[in-house]
């Protein structure tokens, strides 16, 4: 198989799609009751190179498609996309960054407006910054995490 999936076998692409589908459906239960540190550790698998050769664009497109109609976490679509995109890009051999930002004007309100997106080499690949939000955290790998 070539093009959108690189030099990856049909079987590997099928396994990726099944794993992503299962991960997307189980995400609400996997993150329930966990701290942000625990959730980020879950999305940062160490030593798992399960899908080498998959193109970042293909992974991004499949992640967006997998969270298109959520039953749970409807109001946290960017978090679902961000966590899944980050995890599956890492499992494909990439070194993504998961960015978290807040809307400054929402800080004084009852509910903070937050957003997240995934970048590779400084370029957004899953989601993107929205408006004048301020970045508060950039998660890389467990060994290289930066807080702003």
Please, could you describe this protein's structure?
With 148 residues, the protein is α+β, with helices and mostly antiparallel strands. It has one domain (3-147). It has helices at 10-31, 36-42, 56-66, 77-90, and strands at residues 97-102, 114-120, 123-126, 134-141, 144-147. The protein has a five-stranded antiparallel sheet with strand order 3-2-1-4-5. Helix 3 packs antiparallel against helix 4 (77-90). The longest helix is centred in the first third of the chain and has 22 residues, at 10-31. It is globular. The model is unreliable at 144-148 (pLDDT under 50).
Oligomeric composition of the shown chains: single chain
Which spans of ≥5 residues are poorly predicted at pLDDT below 50?
144-148
Q: What value does the Rg take, in angstroms?
A: 15 Å
- The separation of the N and C termini measures 41 Å
Q: What letter string, H or E per element, gives the SSE order?
A: HHHHEEEEE
The helix count comes to 4
What shape does the CA trace take? globular
In the sheet with the most strands, the strands line up as: 3-2-1-4-5
Let me know the number of strands: 5
Give the biggest beta sheet: 5 strands, antiparallel
